[in-house]
Amino acid sequence: MAFVPQFSLYFLILLLMPFFTFAQTPSNKTLGSSLTASNDNSGSSWVSPSGEFAFGFRQIGDQGFLLAIWFDKIPEKTIVWSANRNELVQRGSKSELTADGPLVLRDATGRQIWSVGPGDGVVYGAMLDTGNFVLAGSDSVNLWESFDMPTDTMLPTQTMSQGSRLVARFSDSNYSSGRFMFELQSDGNLLLYTTTYPKEDANAAYWSTQSSIPDGFQVIFNQSGYMYLIAKNGSILNPVFSNTASTQNFYQRAIVDSDGVFRHYIYPKSSNSSDGNWPMAWSTLSFIPSDICVRIAGDKGSGACGFNSYCSLVDDRKKCQCPPGYTFFDPEDVMKGCKQNFVPQSCDKTSEEMHLFEFRDMINTDWPNFHYESYKSVSEDWCRQVCLSDCFCSAAFFKNGECWKKQVPLGNGRNGPSVGGKALIKIRKDNSTGSAGSGSNKEQNSTLVTILSALLGSSIFVNILLLLGTFIFFYCWNRTKQGTVQPVTAMPSMNLQSFTYKELEHITEGFKEELGSGAFGTVYIGVLAFDNNEFVAIKRLDKATSDGEQEFRSEVNSIGRTNHKNLVRLLGFCNEGQNRLLVYEYMSNGSLANFLFGNSRPNWESRIQSAFGTARGLFYLHEECNNQIIHCDIKPQNILLDDCLTARISDFGLAKLLKADQTQTTTAIRGTKGYVAPEWFKNLPITVKVDVYSFGVLLLELVSCRKNFEANAKEEQMILSDYAYDCLRDGNLDLLVENDEEAMNDMKRVKKFVRIAIWCIQEDPSLRPTMKKVTQMMEGAVEVSAPPDPTSFISSIV
């Protein structure tokens, strides 16, 4: 008896199947179907079966109409593709699926603007729920699709093949081709480029997948919202966007925005989305590059912003600004750049006009690659003077004793913590303009002479002199009195700035946002508003620390005199009673620990560059400083990464200075478990070799991309140094870097670096190489022999 209801159910399903099939079939548009551009949008679009996408005419302000595809269920009606981005059409224009197959766009006069399609064989057109508009044949095979001709956007399920590109729009409201593009080249390279605007030719690359052997075949934006580059055999080469969101709950798109940043956006399909509390608007899920301002530095083109302007990041968005003395050519289009609002220095009267010009300082601002002369081992004042005496010099850049002269137009302008140095902008004083200004000065001088002559002829002048003398006396006396209560004066020889506690409290908004904390204090983020929003990291030393004063003096005196690209720079300090703070440059990419042990493995070349950078920084501290410095706590958490992912050694709070005639010292145990050299535990004198030991452990972590101790690993793999030596001895180094294809393809360097690391962690400090020799071995200048077994001291460090 059970067979009857079961059979009835099957029969019902069979009856309903045609209706299900019909419901999932796109609304096909037959040959001869057409759309007309109209202001009321009536009859001007074809909608996908679900209603999520539409194909047709969209009005762009008062400029005209685009033949486009857009998200139709959201109020923004966001456009994701267009046919005529560079030539808008007017009301009455028509798009038609012609009788002989092609899809044609004609303006109101009947002139053909655009056409696609193979012609013969096309039976219908359809707007699909994926956002893809297709022309198909009688067998439902797509003969043409919009996914194969992208403009600036990719949608889930869309792919890009070799030779395909996305070109950014000109601006948020202007859909014509802009100044940036994303391209998978025919050689397999995947890059972001600036363009030779107004053409779409590639100019300067500012982001790539950094594959050592380009082998990219397709970029895939899959149904899960994951975008990646694959090889011809289907293996994943590089992720582009790894942050995913459910396509069931979110609309998604990836677009090269008009500012040159490639962003992955999501938009909740309903306010009841189960994937978090996202606003009912487009939100950025991820983007590349992390800082477009500093990434674009081509020899040609204006850079991230227009000529004579500079770029800075505000809430992860590019902001273009003009330097002092300059204004935008067109405030509505800042990419057109800036112009001088004063008469430039005359080359016929350079020496005569020098007194008419002055400099405005811009901290952490530069226009790289746009200099025409440079000088080394000079002072900032010398740099100012050499630019002032050169009529071609519009600005100078000074950093670390080097001076670059620059002339307009200036390109690649950027401002940010990673830039460093100082731009010196030469402008005319008091906005005086050429001869008119000179005449005005002469009139003022003549008036002054007349007044003085009159005063000299009367006794009133004597009284004025007495009053003036009295004022000057009290002013100087007051200044002297104020000077006696200043807690700490600036250290000009070290180019450090002295801050008051109130200034740093204001900069950090009351020490609001904590970046981290350590044994000697807490670090906060701050913004120097008067220095063009320069981000800084402010370390507040704990008041309760008994040797805090000594620690403070050690840091100020040691770090203030250091100068190396692989060290975090000290910018200033505060020393008011119990309030002792240090102001460092801010490293936006965090610590090497987060980079190395995060959710995804960093690529092999980036890890190797971090190893090189750390080694060179330690070599500088040990042998190239005026005073030798032992860091005493080298570990991934104390290696920070700047905007270019350059390794920068930080936290000298544990450093122990050595005098010029001193090679070793003794002190209480410092450092972090797992990175501490054995001599700390044996009450032996401490030398720079403790840093060499810590670097050896760090180098093994960089090679293997795992921590020095992992309790959940197999017993023989728990201690990284022990396991690494076993792999080296047994010829099984591939086990140390298994599942790391890039490292597996570079086993010669893997072997060399593991050998160097084992030499660095020898129990006897005398067997460890110096950091100079370590650097030479890494660079290949010195051969690396097989190291002895280091296991004799393992038990003392775990």
Q: For the CA atoms, what is the radius of gyration?
A: 33 Å
* Whole-number total of structural domains: 5
Strand order of the largest sheet: 36-40-41-39-38-37
The pLDDT mean sits at 82
Unreliable spans:
1-25, 431-459, 477-493, 656-669, 793-798
State the share of residues found in helices, binned by percent: 10-25%
CATH class of the largest domain: Mainly Alpha
Tell me which CATH architecture of the largest domain applies here. Orthogonal Bundle
**Distance separating the two termini:** 73 Å
Q: What gross morphology would you assign?
A: globular
CATH topology of the largest domain: Transferase(Phosphotransferase), domain 1
Structural class: alpha+beta
Number of helical regions: 16
Domain Protein kinase: 509-782
Main location: membrane
EC number: 2.7.11.1
Pfam family, one: Pkinase
Protein architecture, described:
This protein is of the alpha+beta class and 798 residues long. It has five domains: 25-148, Orthogonal Prism (Agglutinin, subunit A), CATH 2.90.10; 150-289, Agglutinin, subunit A; 310-432, 3-Layer(bba) Sandwich (Hepatocyte Growth Factor); 483-586, Phosphorylase Kinase, domain 1 (2-Layer Sandwich); 592-798, Orthogonal Bundle (Transferase(Phosphotransferase), domain 1), CATH 1.10.510.10. 24% of the residues lie in helices and 27% in strands. A six-stranded mixed beta sheet has the order 36-40-41-39-38-37, sandwiched between helices. β17 and β18 (202-208) form a beta hairpin. The longest helix has 25 residues, at 460-484. Residues 1-25, 431-459, 477-493, 656-669 and 793-798 have low confidence and may be disordered.
